[in-house]
Amino acid sequence: MRWKTMKENFLWGGALAASQCEGAYNLDGKGLSVSDVMLAGSKTKKRKRTDGIVAGEYYPSHEAINFYHYYKDDLQYFKEMGFNCLRVSIAWSRIYPNGDELEPNEKGLQFYDQLFDEMLKLDIEPVVTLSHYEMPYYLSRQYNGFFDRRCVDYFERFAITCFKRYSAKVKYWLTFNEINGMITNPYTGGGVIAKIDNNYLQTVLTACHHMFLAGAKAVKACHEIIPSAQIGCMIAFLCGYSATCKPDDVMFNHNFMDVNMFFTDVQVRGRYSNKALTWMSRYGIELPVIDGDEKILEQGKVDYIGFSYYQSITMSSDILDNLGSGGNLFSGAKNSYIKVSEWGWPIDPKGLRVSLNYLYDRYQIPLFIVENGLGAVDEISNDHQIHDNYRIDYLTQHVREMKKAVDLDGVELLGYTWWSPIDIVSYSTGEMKKRYGFIYVDKDNDGNGTLKRYIKDSFYVYQEIIRTNGECVDEKKRYTLNSQLKDVLEIKGLREIIKLVSEGKVTDLQLKLGGRLKINQLLDKFDVNDNNQRLIIDLLNRLEAK
């Protein structure tokens, strides 16, 4: 049976992370997380971590946007937009302050009870990430995070606590946020401090193996405790293009994508691929595999793939030539066909459709776009108006390409959650001025402001997208019934073709390949009835959409 169009129960919403929105970093028994010792940075200044909390320093996560106290008001905004889901994360250190305790913090559990209850009251389905850059600071300092195998058990205990407590409230779960980011950011993802030396990859991939085990154990526990729930993995997806058709560039991009997909391969297939094992062996990396690990991975395969999509990357084998010559954020080659954001991120809506097709072709399990968004500087007028047409353009173009992937390509997609529906602290830079939301929050990069919320123009556009289940972003039809058409199908045996198509004996793809429809006649010159006119027009519009 073919997966058809956008389902009526498609999940529309937004995505948040506890460390970037909640605040209340030391209230109600919460312990420090790795995010709580990160200072603010900027587009040109990298964020730094401190050894514990240093007096006089500004830590963006400590207050963030105070979602901890404002969540009821913010959820009302989300409900007004039409959300039927909201992705949030549970701060691990709010439940287990140090991470290795035997008993959880009841006040922390109660907060998420209240949050989920309020969401469900508004018919907003919780989509919950277990670990979103919020590892307890104590585990990082005492154990070097997931480099130490003991953290596998600590995470499993935390996950089981969450599953049991919220079994009646949460149907959709994710294990680790953007786990493939461990390669470049092992501290934020896994609490690992890895020296940049010859042992860097050994250290990071050791931690990754432990995270795979922890995630697999969580998946197995979720299936046992909440059989009706779905639990997925989550990666940051970079859509890779070859800079040229030069074979070296094509192979370079192919290898880049394989490294990117290494993380999903393990979590979806329950094993390391031969290619990954060969690659690690070539670089002298030995995974800390012990008896039983392979069985754990096999029994902990995820139900779906969640991913973030912000940009594409253009890969060239001539890496050194691209440094300093317009390469993008991740040192890819400059792509002259794609514009970039204020922070240098390529804006590539078509890349989202390419990404959806790539992932679905590779894994054939449901997908979930759990992050997609644009960080930009917003101007607010004296009467609190924010005209963010750049965000509206980004949103509508990406949703349009997403719909094509579902409607035209048959990709099985669970939902779409915009990052972020309200302005929050940007994790990459620690800034507030890098704004993603449909709702403006009055706070600046130095922590000053009233925290008042104001609706942006994009709020109403997303509201309409959700109301119409995405139909409002469809490109305007070029052909309409009974219009004076200047360009129409001309093909030998038109009536016979129409009859075959109407009987389902010829697909539009076969028609396109077999005849390569030429458009140069008027529709009213053909002796066809209204139904056949509709069929021709539908074919024209569908083929042009391809």
TrEMBL record:
Keywords: Glycosidase, Hydrolase. The keyword DNA-binding does not apply. The keyword Flavoprotein does not apply. InterPro entries: GH, Glyco_hydro_1, Glyco_hydro_1_AS. GO terms for biological process: carbohydrate catabolic process. The active site is at E371 (nucleophile). It is an enzyme of class 3 (hydrolase). GO terms for cellular component: cytosol. Its EC number is 3.2.1.21, 3.2.1.86. One of its GO terms (molecular function) is 6-phospho-beta-glucosidase activity. Belongs to the glycosyl hydrolase 1 family. This is Aryl-phospho-beta-D-glucosidase BglH. The gene is bglH.
